[in-house]
Structures are given as C-alpha cells and as structure tokens.
Amino acid sequence: MEGVPTVPRNAPLPATSTDEARVAAVRAWFREAGRDLPWRDDATSPWAVLVSEVMLQQTPVVRVEPVWRAWMERWPTPAALAAATQADAVRAWGRLGYPRRAKRLWECAVALVSLHGGRVPSDLDELRALPGVGDYTAAAVVSFAFRGRALVLDTNVRRVIGRAWRAEPLPAAHQTVGERAHAASLIPGDDAAAAEWAAASMELGALVCTARVARCDECPLASSCAWFAAGCPGLAAAPRRTQPWHGTDRQVRGRIMALLRAASSPLNVAGHAALADVEPGQLDRALEGLLDDGLITRDEATGRCSL
Q1: Going by C-beta distance under 8 Å and a sequence separation of 6 or more, which residues neighbour residue 230?
Q2: Are 254 and 97 in contact (CB under 8 A)?
C-alpha cells in the first residue's frame, strides 16, 4: 500500500541516539542525496537565492527552475529589476501563480536599491523589513545565501522534526512557541553546519519524509524515528490538502492576468470573448481583487485594463 514503510517495524532504536547524531545523519544523507539545484551553487548570489525563495513559495521546483533561470538572466541584480517596471516583473512571472509575489519582489528590488545600495543584507531584521519578506524567507536567505545560523522552519522541516522526535504524522496548521523553541534547539552551533542542517532537513521532507508517502527505507532517521517506532500512525488517514482550481475566483484571476500579459495594449476585460463563459459577478470580483492588489490598472474613462 502506498506510503507504508518497507523498513522492518522492529528495527532497534540505538541506546546512544542523540539530537546531535540525528542532525549529523541527516546532513550526511544530504551530501549524498541532495538535488543539484542552481540556487544551491556556491557562486549563486544572495539576490538569486532570495528570488528562488520567493518563487518556491507554494510552487514546485520543476515549475520554478526555468522561470528562475530566465529571471536571473534578465535581472541578475536588484538594480536591474528595480530599473524595470512592475508590469515587466508580472509578465515575466508567467504562470507561476500568485502573481502578487512578482509585485512584491519588484518592490523588494526597489527597496534594496534605495535602502541597501542594491545589496541583499545578511541581517534578519533588515531582511524582514523588506517588502514580501517574512520570517521564513528572511531566515532562508541568511542560511542559504550567507551560510549563517537561522531558524529555517517550513512545512517539510516541521514534518521531519515532528515525526522523528515527537511521533506526529503531520504538523499542526500553525507553529507554536514550543515547536519553534524545539526546532531552534536542534540547530548546530557552527554556522556552516547550521546552514547545511537547514537545507538537509528541508530536502529530507521534500524527497523522503513526504506528507503522502513515507519512504522510511531511504531515511537516515529510520532507526531513531519516534513515529517509525510507533508504527507510523495517522499516515493512511492524513488529509490530502488540495486546493480547488477550476471555476474558482483564483482561476478567473489567472485567466485575466494571462490575457493582460499577452496584450500589447489595454483591454476591455469585462467584454472580452475569452471570458464570456465567466459569470459577470465572479468576473467583477476577480477584477476588483486584482485592482485592490495593485496587479493591474484600469482607465476609468474607457474601462480598459493593463498590467
């Protein structure tokens, strides 16, 4: 059955297993099994890492990589993007989804030029103050771009720690103070080791200790995992977190954005044949949402819209 581990359930737990040993095992696994992703290259700039982190939010690597490569070729520095327009950024974002990320990334580039001389800062507080950069993204940039020590806690990392240390099949909807404190206690004291642990634990959750399938026979923590020792409870009943798409306001927003990205001049979206199947009230909601988000503009005299 899908998701059932193949490692024997009675695999012994080593009496000397420690947090440090578990962290070291995951780091060693990562050095052998980690994916060769372009933003992990040592020569990758902090700006390129920041761009990758924004693009990877709620979007799989396979969709992000070609867009990231094209983006970095066109705008290799914050100054290059800041010299473009918001519309340029949204068009280049293409079909990655959640185009507000493109808007915020462009605003971030402008802020980096005006406040930091076009450089990405390495300080957590300065990073958090940038448009579109929250706690996770700031910590990821410190860790992955500057090889610093930070609490990088995404869903993948939370799942690995929750299973291996606390026998929890899936993380709760929201992080707790206790969860963050526990995760922070596992971070190695050495900066380089801490950065490697952040990437390694995330990779383990993305490739092996996934939400739907637990590949425990491939996991470096199988022999010391609390969840595995308990028989992997709760996996079969774990909810499949899927988001509806067809017919939703979000889909209509995407269709409007696709029309405007392809247009060479402003369009009357409300009367466009390509959107004739959309219920007028839903079309109005989608348009107003895009206007409120600052992703599109509308000429009130003509009703025509553009990026």
Answers
A1: 167
A2: yes
